[in-house]
Specification:
The complex is a heterodimer of chains A (about 400) and B (about 70). Chain A has 3 domains: about 130 residues, Nucleic acid-binding proteins (OB fold (Dihydrolipoamide Acetyltransferase, E2P)), CATH 2.40.50; about 120 residues, Response regulator (Rossmann fold, 3-Layer(aba) Sandwich); about 40 residues, no CATH class. Chain A is about 45% helix and about 25% strand. Chain A has 9 helices and 14 strands. In chain A, the strands form 3 sheets. In chain A, strands 1-2-3-5-4 form a 5-stranded mixed β-barrel. In chain A, helix 2 crosses helix 3. The termini of chain A are far apart. Chain B is mainly alpha-helical and about 70 residues long. Helices cover about 75% and strands about 0% of the residues of chain B. The chains are: A alpha/beta (about 400), B mainly alpha (about 70). At the A-B interface, helix 8 and strand 12 of A face helix 1 and helix 2 of B.
């Protein structure tokens, strides 16, 4: 039996593999582990069973420093993501066997479009799931608060984006109260961190009007978190409207799709809120003006009516007084007409016989006693002669 | 004749009416004519003053009300 030293066996394998793979081949795989040392990028690539998630294959791979310096920026600018754990990648590799380090795949090229397609497919799957569960539009269907002043903000406390937001929101001078709930806004741990912060927002005593999820500053990369199902499901089912300002321009993430409103940047969120309040203020002012005008019109009308009523009262009094005055005048005239003293004063006199006014000589005889009244005093006389005419 | 206090306008008008009718009767008691005429003219004055006061009070009230 031929006995080989290990080094001989390894060298043989090295030769066989080298001969079998003279040209690179394209391989689909998921990055399971990634570390950069001395500029070289060491990865563990895996393939999982699509249904069960069980590992089917695993291999070591390396991008040598010279190549990594070119491939990483190319991948980043094409996909908007760092080459990172969890990504599905299409790599051009040359399998190499090293007697000491074993089998490794040397990466010579990468096809970012495959990853983009994978992300898109993953996104679509997540969207379909959210839609199927009936929660996709839940946050959008919430009523938007008329005057949203109590703001819960989830952001990295040191991020430039949060500072931009604070500067902008304070500019207009509305009485916003913002409370920051710090969270990791980037990287594979960020979905869990953001969800934890969301739970803190709800756990407190404060009733918030809106939740703002802000991420700003730094390169618009590694936003994979914002396509995460768990985060999306939490945003969709959050009991108050969520506004996202994740600070990217490239494409729409699922977190944006399920939120009440998605804006490009934290600054845009601040501007939106200030404009919203300004609009509400204008609306309120218009209503107050209309109300004031209506009240004024009504008051004017009532005043006019009252003036008419006062005039009517005045007119009625005058009319009654005039009528009574006229009646009095008539009576006064009657008194004056029947006042015999007026006639006596003028020299007429009144003659009485037996206490009755004498108007006809038929009523007296010769020798009767009569009394004649003058204006001043009276005199008694006896009739001497009577003339019929 | 003494100044009567508490006499109402209505009572004054009623008395005046009666006096005028008495004065117009053909066989009025002449002995009392002078007194009755005097009383009637007094009542006329009372009623006139009363009406003047009513008009004045109403004017004052309405004027004050409008300037409030």
């Amino acid at each position: 039996m031929q006995k080989l030293d290990l080094i001989d066996l390894q060298r043989h394998l090295e030769e066989v593999i080298s001969n079998a793979f003279e040209k690179p081949c394209w391989v689909r795989a998921e990055i399971n582990h990634l570390a950069v040392r001395n500029g070289h990028c060491y990865m563990e690539l895996v393939q999982k069973d699509e249904q069960t998630d069980r590992l089917l294959a695993k291999a070591q791979a390396v991008i040598w420093a010279g190549n990594y310096a070119l491939l990483e920026p190319y991948f980043r600018t094409s996909t908007g993501m760092h080459l990172a754990v969890g990504l599905q990648v299409l790599l051009s590799v040359v399998p190499r066997m090293h007697p000491l380090y074993g089998l490794s795949l040397t990466v010579t090229n990468i096809d970012p479009s495959y990853t983009i397609g994978g992300v898109e497919a993953e996104r679509k799957k997540t969207m379909d799931r959210l839609a199927k569960e009936g929660i996709l539009d839940m946050n959008k269907e919430l009523p938007f608060p008329v005057v949203p002043l109590q703001l819960a903000v989830i952001s990295a406390s040191t991020a430039a984006g949060y500072q931009d937001f604070k500067d902008h929101i304070e500019k207009a001078g509305y009485a916003f109260r913002t409370v920051l709930f710090p969270a990791l806004m980037q990287g594979s741990d960020s979905p869990a961190s953001i969800i934890e912060a969301m739970e803190k927002v709800l756990a407190g005593d404060r009733n918030f009007d809106l939740l703002l999820i802000l991420r700003g500053g730094g390169a618009a990369t590694d936003l994979h978190s914002y396509d995460n199902y768990d985060l999306a499901a939490h945003i969709a089912q959050f009991p108050i409207p969520v506004i996202t300002g994740i600070g990217h321009h490239r494409d729409v993430h699922i977190a944006d799709r399920v939120s009440y409103l998605a804006l490009k940047t934290p600054t845009a969120v601040a501007d939106f809120l200030n404009n919203h309040l300004a609009d509400e203020e204008q609306k309120t002012i218009r209503v107050i003006r209309a109300l004031e005008k209506a009240v004024q019109n009504r008051m004017d009308h009532e005043k006019q009516e009252l003036e008419y009523v006062l005039k009517d009262i005045g007119g009625a009094v005058t009319w009654i007084v005039r009528r009574h005055t006229h009646e009095l005048e008539m009576q006064e005239q009657r008194i004056m007409r029947n006042n015999p003293l007026t006639l006596l004063k003028k020299g007429y006199s009144l003659t009485l016989a037996g206490g009755k006014t004498l108007t006809d000589v038929k009523d007296v005889r010769k020798g009767d006693k009569i009394t004649t009244l003058l204006y001043k005093g009276s005199m008694e006389a006896t009739i001497d002669t009577i003339k019929k005419e | 004749m003494k100044k009567e206090t508490g006499m109402t306008y209505q009572a004054a008008r009623k008395e005046l009416e009666a006096l005028v009718e008495e004065l117009e009767r053909p066989n009025a008691d002449l002995g009392q004519i002078a007194a009755k005429v005097k009383r009637a003219l007094e009542l006329v004055k009372f009623c006139r003053d009363y009406l003047y006061k009513v008009q004045e009070d109403a004017d004052t009230l309405l004027h004050d009300f409008e300037n409030e």
